[in-house]
Design goal:
Blueprint lengths: L11 E7 L3 H16 L3 E3 L8 E6 L4 H15 L11 E5 H6 L2 H5 L5 E4 L6 H9 L22 E5 L1 E2 L10 H5 L3 E2 L2 H13 L4 E5 L16 H12 L5 E4 L9 H9 L6 E7 L3 H6 L6 H14 L4 E8 L6 H14 L3 E6 L17 H24 L4 E12 L5 E7 L10 E4 L8 E10 L2 E8 L10 E2 L1
Parallel strand pairs: 1-2, 1-3, 3-4, 4-5, 6-9, 9-10, 11-12, 12-13, 16-18
Antiparallel strand pairs: 7-8, 14-15, 14-17, 14-19, 15-16, 17-18
Helix pairs in contact: 7-8, 8-9, 11-12, 12-13
């Protein structure tokens, strides 16, 4: 924010747009904190008020790349008060993936900042907005590590990936796998909790192997317990996403079961269940192994919620292999399933495979997976009706009549993924925990009534109404 040292008329407004996954949200939070620490810049929510715009992009799929390019070019058309073009910076995964190629193909864009250079964002902004010396604005103010506008915050515990799944470009975008050191992670968590965050969501490309490349002999179960200790004084939650089946160790399962602050929620991005398809994906496992693990999680962890990811139309997928995937999803009955149609990505091994599945057949299979996923997901949501849960108030939104209503999430709902609980036009504070009776379920959306301002004791799951 501007300070008394800064000549206010010269302070530049910056607007940030974030596309893609939660890891990009973390990167944008970090850039926002760096920008707000500089007296030369001010963050604005309206692109029309901006002197510079940052579009933080995703390039995981062809569709995501096109979305990033289209939105960036849309922003290029905005004008400053003097009629000049607003400088537009493309950051994140598209510059990381395509590098110098973009300079030639997108001359309209003022600057490109790949993921590993995003900490230089203040210097880049100074250059594109014509600030010749940041010293004229005074010293940067002390900055928090992240600036988060929610009751929940994602925390990256690792980046990169060594799996090299044949369909995935992430290792070529974000590099080889590395664990962030525990002290760095915990410092960030403390800063977020001090700033009002009540739910910490640990993310990475492969969270289950966190610590395997560190010298301290630590692992994810240990880290979860350390983070839980940080959030305990504010009765907070800890959630971990993107766990591969191999990462579900006995100690990790026990930690999720026994540590009250760790919510009983697992995201297992299985992709498929047929052993031959998984082998072509450069992944491991099969339907029997996965079913055994899921049965154990539900048996040993009360109130267990499980999300997965299913992909339709991988190269060479036969009718029988697809039918096995459908049968597996029906037998297991996941609470939530993200469904994707295979995307032929440049530079990946699967992109060069023979027997690419016809687009119409891919769409047909994708729709069938959606139907199966929704049938079980909607039923899971409906079973919540009549029960009372501890809920974190996470914000507000307009209802059909334009009135503002509170929204919240229970432990079985991850941010940005699983729907919310609509609480109506009642008083409440973002970051507050309340007890809510679920009155109605519409698809994945739940509607409830606050019955108590005192949070439930013990585990963070349900109590019968």
């Amino acid at each position: 924010m501007p300070t008394s040292q800064a000549p206010c008329a010269l302070v530049k407004n910056v607007h940030i747009v974030t596309l893609g996954c939660a890891k990009n949200e973390v990167d944008s939070d970090r850039m926002r904190a760096l920008i707000e620490a500089s007296p030369a810049f001010n963050i604005v929510d309206d692109a029309q008020e901006a002197d510079a715009i940052i579009v933080n992009t995703c390039s995981f799929l062809v569709a995501a790349v096109q979305e990033g390019i289209d939105l960036t070019l849309e922003m290029v058309g905005l004008k400053l008060d003097d009629g000049a073009d607003v400088p537009v910076i493309m950051s994140g995964c598209i510059p990381s993936r395509y590098g110098e190629q973009l300079v030639k193909e997108m001359p309209e864009v003022t600057a490109f900042v790949p993921v590993d250079q995003e900490d230089s964002i203040v210097d880049v902004l100074a250059r594109v907005t014509g600030i010749t010396s940041l010293d004229a604005f005074g010293a940067p103010s002390p900055s928090v590590l992240r600036t988060v506008r929610s009751a929940a915050a994602y925390v990256k515990i690792s980046d990169g990936c060594d799996r090299f799944c044949s369909f995935c470009a992430i290792p070529f975008i974000r590099g080889r796998y590395y664990s962030r050191p525990a002290d760095v992670i915990l410092d960030e968590v403390r800063s977020l909790v001090a700033g009002g965050v009540r739910e910490i969501v640990l993310i990475g490309q492969d969270t289950g192997i966190w610590g395997s490349d560190l010298e301290q002999g630590v692992d994810l179960a240990w880290l979860l317990r350390q983070v839980a200790a940080v959030v305990e004084p504010v009765h907070g939650w800890v959630r971990v996403l993107y766990l591969q089946p191999e990462g579900m160790t006995d100690d990790l399962i026990a930690t999720i079961r026994d540590v009250d602050q760790v919510v009983p929620y697992i995201d297992l991005p299985l992709q498929h269940c047929d052993a031959d398809v998984l082998r072509r994906m450069n992944r491991t496992g099969d339907s029997a192994q996965f079913a055994q693990l899921i049965d154990r999680l539900r048996r040993e962890i009360p109130g267990m919620t499980i999300r997965t990811t299913a992909m339709a139309g991988f190269p060479g997928e036969t009718d029988d292999e697809f039918e096995e995937l459908c049968s597996f999803l029906e037998r297991v009955g996941f609470d939530y399933t993200s469904v994707f149609s295979y995307s032929q990505e440049e530079g990946t091994a699967a992109g060069e495979m023979p027997d690419q599945v016809d687009e119409d057949l891919k769409l047909e299979r994708t729709q069938r997976l959606h139907d199966i996923a929704d049938a079980y997901g909607f039923a899971s949501a409906a079973r919540r009706v009549g029960k009372t849960y501890r809920v974190l108030i996470d914000g507000s939104e307009s209802d059909d009549e334009g009135n503002r209503e509170l929204i919240g999430r229970a432990a079985f709902q991850a941010p940005d993924s699983d729907g919310v609980i609509h609480l109506g036009q009642v008083e409440g504070t973002v970051g507050e925990f309340v007890d809510v009776r679920i009155d109605e379920a519409v698809c994945y959306e739940l509607f409830g009534t606050i019955v108590s301002r005192e949070p439930l004791t013990g585990n963070l799951e349900e109590a019968d109404a």
